[in-house]
Design a protein that fits this description.
The protein is an alpha+beta fold. The protein has 2 domains: 7-102, 2-Layer Sandwich (Phosphorylase Kinase, domain 1), CATH 3.30.200.20; 116-311, Aminoglycoside 3'-phosphotransferase, Chain: A, domain 2. It has helices spanning 12-22, 63-76, 116-132, 144-147, 154-160, 168-172, 174-187, 226-233, 244-254, 259-276, 288-311, and strands spanning 26-31, 42-46, 51-58, 88-94, 97-102, 192-194, 203-205, 211-213, 220-222. The strands form 3 sheets. It has a 5-stranded antiparallel beta sheet with strand order 1-2-3-5-4, with helices on both faces. The protein has a two-stranded antiparallel sheet with strand order 6-9. Strands 7-8 form a two-stranded antiparallel sheet. Helix 5 crosses helix 10 and helix 7 (174-187) crosses helix 10 (259-276). It starts with 11 loop residues before the first helix and ends with a helix.
């Protein structure tokens, strides 16, 4: 049973406006998986085959999700059509509701566990996007250092109030990790259009290999490596088959950046999950706590490996 709102939860007035955009009554519904908010995430389709992607939420369901949907609508309205992003169709308030409508992205989310082929295809697409989106073509976006910087100071918050179950390796290296995370924030600065929330459920892969990036609520300006590092930090690779560590190094070499910079950024992302994993359960986002704990544990392995090679050395 999904935690998301569905078509049936939306008022008749929203149904009517969406069917006008669609060009006819909805004959087919497809709910999209992934994500953590209460916002609906559905593809509606008419008998003609015309389809639209709809996200809708009320403030009472999740105030944060409503604001993110508004931010995404504002960003999509300004992202160039050449970017691998489904185009904005409409965005409107309706009573207590805010509704975001886009074209439907082609393809499906990468399967998890990731395959080597899918990972290589997405990393190549990100390199192409960053090459074409520097300088940032969308004016007035916040910097990645602003949108993610506070999150990446999680080790500072842990130092001020250490949890009883703090991992012993983190405890032993806490001061150095705090410094690394601050360097990592600085390394994210730049003037490239960045998605800034990149993980598998925000990516679509088509059969022809084309990649679409969806859910642009956190669109920002940052470094050319910011999105790829965030994606690589999200990939679980317990047996090393995907060689995530090697992909991090190759990304940095391609962009002329020192290997330690990747370790610093990953340490900052680990700081967020290590801090956030101890937060109380959020009823409106029931899957979020487990996600944060899994990401903390998986990312710790990668950071320790890189730390011993690029920092401790």
């Amino acid at each position: 049973m999904t935690h998301r709102l569905t078509w049936a939860d939306l008022p008749t007035s929203v149904h009517r406006r969406l069917e006008l955009l669609l060009g006819g009554p909805v004959t087919r519904l497809r709910s999209c998986s992934g994500g953590f908010s209460r916002s609906s995430a559905e593809i509606i389709e008419a008998a003609s085959g015309r389809a639209l992607f709809v996200k809708a939420v009320r403030k009472q369901d999740n105030p944060g999700a409503m604001q993110l949907n508004r931010s995404e609508a504002a960003a999509l309205a300004r992202i160039p059509s050449a970017a691998p992003v489904p185009a904005l169709v409409d965005a409107f308030p309706n009573g207590d509701w805010f509704v975001l409508v886009t074209e439907v992205g082609r393809g499906a989310m990468p399967e998890e566990p990731w395959t080597a082929g899918d990972l290589s295809a997405v990393l190549a697409a990100l390199d192409e996007l960053q090459a074409s989106a520097t300088p940032c073509p969308v004016p007035d976006l916040p910097g990645v250092t602003d949108t993610l910087g506070e999150d990446m100071l999680g080790f500072d918050r842990i130092a001020a109030d250490p949890p009883a179950d703090l991992d012993p390796w983190i405890a032993a290296h806490l001061d150095a990790l705090r410094a690394a995370a601050r360097r990592g924030i600085d390394a994210l600065d730049g003037d490239t259009l960045c998605h800034s929330d990149l993980r598998a459920d925000n990516i679509l892969l088509a059969d022809d290999g084309r990649v679409s990036l969806v859910d642009w609520a956190w669109a920002s300006r940052g470094s050319r490596t910011a999105d790829a590092l965030q994606l690589l930090s999200s990939i679980e690779d317990p047996d090393g088959a995907l060689e995530v560590d090697r992909h991090v190094d190759e990304l940095l070499v391609r962009h002329g950046r020192p290997l330690g910079e990747g370790t610093d950024v990953l340490a900052g992302i680990l700081a967020f999950f290590a801090d956030a994993a101890r937060h109380p359960h959020v009823p409106a986002m029931p899957l979020l706590g487990e996600h944060r704990r899994r990401r903390r544990d998986a990312l710790l392995t990668l950071v320790r490996r890189r730390w011993e090679r690029t920092i401790a050395a």
